[in-house]
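Q: I have 158 residues here and want to know how they pack in 3D. Can you give me a structure?
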Amino acid sequence: MADAIRESRRGVAPALFVATVCGVGYIPFASGTFGSVVGLLMWWLLPATTIAQGVAIVAIFALGSWCGGVAERHFGRTDPRQVVIDEVMGMLITLFMNPVGWRGAFGGFLLFRLFDVIKPYPSNRLEQLHGGVGVMADDGMAAIYANIALRAGLWLTK
């Protein structure tokens, strides 16, 4: 029995490492904001191609769904604040195929934080999905809203 417990704990540690984005989620205040900053940095480091960014979004969604579910069981609650991989994905979706520099990316950051906090419909419903998919889906929807708002802002300022 002790071996089974140790074995299950070994599987939890890597999942928590990913879910908290190398521990960023353990920052005691504004962990979602710090996770979004990591997403902004990842966007900057990724090749500026639709394929590279799209693959990164899909991979992070899949990985985040798995490790988000593990983290929910570990922390004993739905969408624990320590899980910030969803914010990383959210920033990538917000900036996906938006031709922006750092100023526009910062605008996207602010828009994503706004939509992530207010969770307009159906974002607020998506967080009720089971397990890690719910953790990731509500931020994905908030990011789609932010992406559209950023596009509108870019179009209006042309």
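Q: Anything worth noting?
A: DSSP finds seven helices and no strands in the chain. The chain has one domain: 2-156.
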